[in-house]
Amino acid sequence: MTRIAVIPGDGIGPEVVEQAVMTLDAFGLGLDFDHLDHVNAGTYLRTGVALCDEDVARVAASRSALLGAIGDPRVASPAYGRGVLLRLRFELDLYVNHRPARLLSDRLSPLRPDRPRAVDCVVIRENTEGLYTGMGGALRAGGEHEIALDIDLSTHRGTSRVVEHAFTIARREVCMVDKANAVEHGGSLWQRCWRAAAARHPDVAARHLYVDAAAMRMVTDPTGFDVVVTNNSYGDILSDVASAVAGGIGTAASANLNPERGFGLYEPVHGSAPDIAGTRAANPVGAILSAGLLLADLGHTAEAAALRNAVDLAVADGETTPDLGGSLDTGKAGQAVRARL
Ligand code: NAD
Ligand code: IPM
Ligand code: MN
Fold first, then answer.
1. Pocket, ligand 2, Cβ cutoff 6 A
2. Per-residue pLDDT tens for 38-84?
3. Fold of 1-98+247-341
4. How many helices (H) and strands (E) does the chain have?
5. How far are the Cα atoms of 130, 186, 187, 190, 235 from residue 158, in angstroms, in the given order?
6. Which InterPro entries does the record associate with it (predicted)?
């Protein structure tokens, strides 16, 4: 049995993960799901800890993990998200955040129809460093002379391994995105790691854009991108932009990976969407496509392709949730995908 840890989480997380698990089940691959239903904001509010050491060990002992979303309007502190999502990413060293964006149907593109629109790119986001490490502090906290510091950490090891990964998965080009014109030390390190990786992969084109220009291009000419590699924060932002030009945040999938260890934590790019939680309006496609990335990484390539194709067909048939112009609820939209497998 291949054990998959499942963390439904908060808001629409459980609603979309249920559909992803049912879709995986439809393949009859003998996957065995280990549900960590208690890892949510309710537990955090009651006990102060949502994900304990034992939970981390359960996830680490699994073959892969599937997560819905972490976040709740009752919790203001970043300690909760840090204690669950970032803890898993950091402790399991899932240094690659693989976020593909592929236009599901022409009618979903917000771009003008006279432009080429076939978006099909991957944002590779560095997932264990940058502004997310919690390093830093506050001086003279609370007063009007307060100074807040959040260190933007880039190490040679962390940068070179994620840039190298981007080149190994590229079909034609890697575009490295940084802010080296303003951010001195990290900018220089990313530039050097990118040049060294480009020299190791002469068969792959290497492009560079500053993050402001990259955000602009991601909107005006997203079809030009193949693989975008960038740091933790820029990757967070650019993957949301890419999701929007590829059909919408409800459709975007992601994989948090450690390629050497072959372990992945799969989750939709979106959050817990408190504004629609409980209304059955959540689009399950992002979670289902995340389950598809899980299948592909487990070697079930044919099933993964069938899953992607079934999603495309359901979307083309308008058998979708309201965010994509359909009228189905979460469950019916999931069913529409499974009916096309
Ligand atoms: P969000 O992604 O939850 O929602 C942004 C907008 O997109 C909302 O209008 C929402 O209704 C819509 N949306 C999101 N997913 C959708 C879906 N599947 N179907 C249809 N519409 C969808 O982002 P937010 O509002 O900034 O954050 C809400 C909470 O989620 C916060 O606590 C945040 O920290 C957390 N969050 C968690 C993750 C994660 O677990 N990976 C990712 C992003 C945000
Ligand atoms: C994401 C989310 C998280 C991030 C938040 C919830 C900490 O936005 O997975 O994209 O920024 O990594
Ligand atoms: Mn995000």
1. 71, 81, 85, 236, 269, 271
2. 999 999 999 999 999 999 999 999 999 999 999 999 998 889 999 99
3. Isopropylmalate Dehydrogenase (3.40.718)
4. 12, 12
5. 10, 11, 14, 10, 15
6. ICDH/IPMDH, IsoPropMal-DH-like_dom
CA of 313 to the centre of ligand 1 (A): 25
Q: Same CATH fold, 110-245 and 1-98+247-341? A: yes
CATH match of 110-245 with 3.40.718.10: yes
Q: What are the sequence ranges of the domains in the chain?
A: 1-98+247-341, 110-245
Which segments in the chain show pLDDT lower than 70? 110, 112-117
Give ipTM to 2 decimals: 0.94
Q: How far is the CA of 31 from the centre of ligand 2 (A)?
A: 27
- Ligand that comes closest to the CA of residue 127: 2
Active site residue 106: no
Whether 236 is catalytic is: yes
Q: Determine the Cα–Cα distance for residues 272 and 116; give it in Å rounded to an integer.
A: 32
